[in-house]
């Protein structure tokens, strides 16, 4: 039987910043590139992902003004060529696109933009993320193979420092090279700098609250005052995402039951603030690629919600653009939700809400 201890219960909500994507070969350039390292400060959590390789056809490339056109080679029933348009940013041409030359690497993995004596390489995954092209959502999808973190114990450390000497990444690359040579591996680097406490009165609404008025008030104040340090946030996000996606190359946390194994060191700080839930939100909409795994396919929204947003997006003005952006974010966002207690010892909204006179739980998120 469920036990409702307080009127409201709180959950720690961790949400990612936008990802930075790197090819594995770029790790070693990034380690010694101070400018790139500065851009990646705070990126301590990483996902190793893969998808069927999509290449740029070297024979198709052309430059008109500041726009590159060409074809992407995509594996369907056979290899097909899909036209694309990719607009160069100001940093590529510095206001003088007529001075540029473009070419494609022999393998089709990068576009090279030459400006005088300087060459800028644009990886195919950047083209895929930003170009106008009729790729399907499934062709863009990124399969999560591994989740990890890189946080220095004695000095500042980034995810790229950990990945530069990582046995599991080497194993993944070896496996892909041998058994799936048509697959590309992409590294997604995330910041989890932000967190908040979500407080809800949900749960089994048929139950009486056990706590008295004063105790209930003090409990609510503890929830509102809760603060979790950065190292703990990263560790919690890593454990939750491993448990959620069940990546094939992870060992730890795949089978962890956070509701019963509360002696875990990483849960101590959360539980000390009387928080009884963990929500980890991760988004990939800027890559225009959905995250997925065998355990969790891409998010499917209610068709009514999707149609409502698409109707707004067909309008003109600021509201339409906002609707398009919000729909894209929702379609590319996963929420990993974990109650940290069993309902029979302390019911919470993350177990689902039972309305008065019913016994059917409804999900909070």
Q: Report the span from N to C terminus.
A: 23 Å
Spans with pLDDT under 50 lasting ≥5 residues?
Answer: none
Task: Please report which band the strand proportion falls in: under 5%, 5-15%, 15-25%, 25-35%, 35-45% or over 45%.
Answer: 25-35%
Please report the number of helical segments: 12
Largest sheet: 5 strands, mixed
How confident overall, as mean pLDDT? Answer: 91
- H and E string: EEHHEEEEEHEEEHHEHHEEHHHEEHHE
Q: Given the helix and strand composition, which structural class is it?
A: alpha+beta
Helical percentage = 25-40%
Instruction: State the total count of DSSP E strands.
Output: 16
Q: Using only CA atoms, what is the Rg?
A: 24 Å
**Spatial arrangement of strands, main beta sheet:** 2-12-3-11-15
Shape: elongated
Structural notes for this entry:
The protein is built from 12 helices and 16 strands. The protein is of the alpha+beta class and 365 residues long. The radius of gyration is 24 Å and the shape is elongated. Strand 6 (67-75) and strand 7 (79-87) form a beta hairpin. The protein has a 5-stranded mixed beta sheet. Strands 13-1-14-16 form a 4-stranded mixed beta sheet. The mean pLDDT is 91. The longest helix has 16 residues, at 230-245. It is 28% helix and 27% strand.
């Amino acid at each position: 039987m469920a036990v409702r201890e307080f009127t409201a219960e709180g959950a720690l909500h961790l949400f990612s910043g936008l990802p930075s994507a790197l090819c594995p070969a770029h790790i070693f350039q990034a380690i010694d590139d101070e400018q790139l390292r500065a851009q990646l400060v705070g990126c301590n959590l990483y996902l190793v992902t893969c998808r069927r390789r999509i290449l740029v056809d070297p024979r198709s490339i052309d430059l008109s003004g500041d726009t590159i056109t060409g074809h992407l080679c995509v594996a369907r029933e056979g290899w097909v060529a899909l036209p694309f348009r990719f607009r160069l940013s100001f940093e590529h041409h510095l206001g003088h696109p007529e001075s540029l030359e473009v070419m494609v690497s022999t393998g089709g993995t990068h576009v090279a933009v030459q400006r005088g004596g300087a060459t800028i390489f644009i990886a195919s995954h950047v083209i895929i993320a930003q170009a106008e092209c009729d790729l399907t959502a499934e062709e863009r999808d990124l399969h999560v193979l591994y989740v990890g973190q890189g946080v220095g114990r004695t000095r500042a450390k980034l995810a790229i420092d950990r990945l530069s000497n990582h046995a599991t990444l080497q194993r993944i690359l070896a496996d892909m090279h041998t058994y799936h040579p048509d697959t590309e591996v992409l590294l997604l680097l995330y910041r989890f700098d932000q967190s908040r406490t979500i407080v809800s009165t949900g749960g089994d609404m048929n139950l009486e609250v056990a706590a008295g008025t004063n105790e209930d008030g003090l409990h609510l104040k503890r929830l509102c005052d809760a603060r979790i340090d950065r190292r703990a946030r990263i560790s919690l996000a890593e454990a939750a995402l491993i448990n959620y996606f069940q990546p094939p190359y992870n060992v730890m946390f795949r089978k962890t039951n956070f509701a019963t194994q509360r002696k875990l060191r990483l849960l101590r700080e959360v539980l000390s603030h009387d928080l009884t839930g963990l929500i980890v939100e991760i988004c990939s909409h800027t890559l225009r690629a959905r995250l997925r795994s065998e355990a969790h396919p891409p998010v499917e929204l209610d068709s009514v919600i999707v149609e409502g947003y698409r109707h707004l997006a067909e309008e003109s003005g600021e509201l339409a653009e906002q609707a398009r952006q919000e729909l894209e974010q929702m379609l590319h966002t996963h929420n990993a939700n974990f109650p940290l207690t069993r309902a029979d010892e302390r019911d919470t909204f993350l177990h689902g809400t039972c309305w008065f006179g019913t016994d059917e739980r409804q999900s909070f998120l």
